[in-house]
Every structure is written in structure tokens, then in C-alpha cells.
Amino acid sequence: MDTSPASQPTSITQPKDPPTEIRPPVVLPPDPKISFSTALIGTTSTCNTINTSTVVARQTTHNRKPVVIFKASDYYGVMAENCKWTLVRKFTMGRPKIETIRAKFIEQIPLKGKVRIGAYDYKHDFIEFNNETDLNTPYFQRFMGIYGALLRMFKWSPDFNPNEETSLAPIWILLPELPFHMFKWEYLKQVLEQIGTPMKEDIATIARTRSHMAKVRVEVDLMKSLPDSVFIGIEGDTTRLKGKDQKLEYEGVPTFCKTCKLYGHDYERCKVEARKREQARANQETKNAEKKEDEARTNIAGEIGIKVTEGTQTHIENQKDDGFIQVKNKRNRKKKTFQAESSNVNNNETKKVVLNQLQPPHDQTTLKNRNTQAT
Fold first, then answer.
1. Section 340-350 average pLDDT
2. Coiled coil where (predicted)?
3. CB 318: neighbour CB atoms within 10 A?
4. Residues 202 and 117 in one domain
5. Which domain holds residue 149?
6. Considering only CA atoms, which of 179, 163, 172 is closest in space to residue 249?
7. With 80 as the cut, is the pLDDT of residue 312 above it?
């Protein structure tokens, strides 16, 4: 008699443990004995992991020194991509201890991932995130305080210079009376693409609860001018281009000096520009004074030249047609004959001296011949 399957004992098969190579990692909570800052930092870099084997530098020498040259596309592209989620914080009056900064940062900023905080110098530190959301949370604030120490936050770039501050800053751009169907993020990004880098719209724009205006946070370059409008056009296969100017309003634009590349003052209040303007004013005053002196010298020389010319003309008017100067003898005519002859001789000598002074050098030979004939 066959036994029914129901009467057979039921066997329970236990699931086997997964193979070791595919066992999911076990995440343990931080050891309570480990400091909070150590747990925050972790042991591995949070920069994006990308393939850097394609970056090959050119090795050469210059002035007997080794030189390594990278391609610009690699330096600003692949190599910078590895740490694109990095913030630079600048402390106004000096940086506190790095342990204090690490402990205080997590209390002020809620994070979804890991973060690394490292000191750069006595005024700067670097914060590396492993996701863009955590990066934008403090970046949108721009300012922060730690135990009374005020700091500003900037986005890191390959051209980072501790003596300058980056001109990139996140601001709000308002689009009043934007067509309601363009409130979608895909359309807003294209409208503001030439103004800067669109980052995020506000909650009212997402929910469409403020239908008369859209508001988008955009990262702009403060070294460039901000346009007051953008033209939104419509064209078809059989219709001509038409459209309208969309007005742009800006909110939260920080004061940035384009000369010294620092925040907190503009061109009009820049001390560097003030020194330049003062130097230019002093140089202009010096030029004006030199010009007046030159004009005074010219006027004096002109007056002297007129007097000399008038004196010369007086002598020339007294000349006869043959080139000699007429000299009138005002002596007493009753004097003896030999005194008159002596006077004539002296007059001839005087004529020669005067003519030598008035005649140009190339006429000296002709004058001598005339004097010889006259004698």
C-alpha cells in the first residue's frame, strides 16, 4: 500500500549561506572609543573615482630643469573631475583648530554621505563631499560661523589661488511673467544656460504655486556683466521668428571687486583702484605743469626773437641799395682835411664789420670783393 504524500514527513531545507565573494559587507557603527572627527573623516578619499590612466603628461627639460606638461583638456577636465565636489572655506580672522572645525561642521550641516575636511593654511580649509546634494547645502549658504570665526565658502577650481577669491557665486534669478508652461526644469535650464550654470529652482517654482514668476538658483561669473533680459523666440517651418524679451531680476548678488578679485567691496571702493586714480591724477598734473612751462619758454623766446628782428630791420633800413650802411658824419665840417680823411677810413672799417655781421656766411666772399673794389 502506497503511502500518501501527506503522510510523509516534511523536510525543511535551510538556505545556504551566500558565497564569500558575494557576501554583502557588514557596516558596523563607529567605535565609541573613536573620536567623532575620526568617524566623520573615514579612511578613504571621497573624491569621485574615475579612470586617470588616460592622462599622459609630456616630459621635457627647460633651463636644465625637469618639466612636466599636461594637456589643458586633461588638467581642467579629467583631472579636475576627480574632485569637483570640493568646497574651499576662507576664515576672515584666521582658522580655528582643525579638530574643532570637524566636530562643529556636522552639527551645522546635515549630510547624507561622507565628508573629508583638511587644513590648507592658516585661513583656508578644504571640504570634500561624495555627492552634489551635500555640496550644495553649505555652498548655497555662502557664509558660516564657527565659535565666532566668520568664514566664506567657495567652489574649488584647478586655478585656486589663496590670495584671490573665485568669481563664481550662486545667486537667485527671477523670471517675472514667464509663460506658465515653461516652469519645468528642463525648459528653465535652457532659458538660463547663457547666463550661468542653473543649479536648482525654488520650491514655489517646483510646485507652481507662484504662477507669475519663476525663481532659479544659478551659478554666475561675477567677472562678467549680468544681462537684464533674454530673448525667447519661436520659429516654425513656415512662420517667421517671433518672440519677446524675458526680463531678468537678480537677488543675492554679492559685492565683488574685479580688480583685486575679492569679495566685500566693488570698483568704486577698491583701494587699489583709488591708488591708480590718484597716481593718474598726479601724472596729469605733472604733464599740465610741464606743458605750461614749455608754453612760457616759447613765449619768452618769441618775444626775444621779435626784438632781435626789429633791431636787425633798423640796421637794414639804413642800408643803401649797394648793401652798405649809410653813416652820417655829424662832426664839424670846419675841421681840417686830414681829420675828414681819417674819419672816412674809420667809416669804411665800420662798414666792413657791420656787413660781416649781417651777411650770411656764404656771402662773405662776395662782400670782401665788393669792399676791395670800393677801396
1. 55
2. 272-299
3. 13
4. no
5. 60-155
6. 172
7. no
Place of cell 507662484: 210
Q: What is the pLDDT of residue 260?
A: 84
Count of domains for the chain = 3
CATH of the domain at 130: 3.30.70.330
Q: Does residue 184 fall inside a structural domain?
A: yes
Inter-residue contact 195 to 230 (CB < 8 Å): yes
Cβ distance 251 to 259 under 8 Å? no
At 7 the three-state DSSP class reads helix
What is the distance between the alpha carbons of residues 175 and 253, in angstroms, rounded to a whole number?
16
Q: Residue 63 is placed in which grid cell?
A: 633651463
Q: Which three cell numbers stand for residue 169?
A: 557665486
pLDDT of residue 309: 57
pTM, rounded to two decimals: 0.57
Same domain, 270 and 250: no
Q: Which residue carries 531678468 as its cell? A: 248
Contact between 119 and 98 (Cβ < 8 Å) = yes
Question: Is 115 in the same domain as 184?
Answer: no
- Angle among Cα 86, 83, 126 to the nearest 5 degrees reads 35
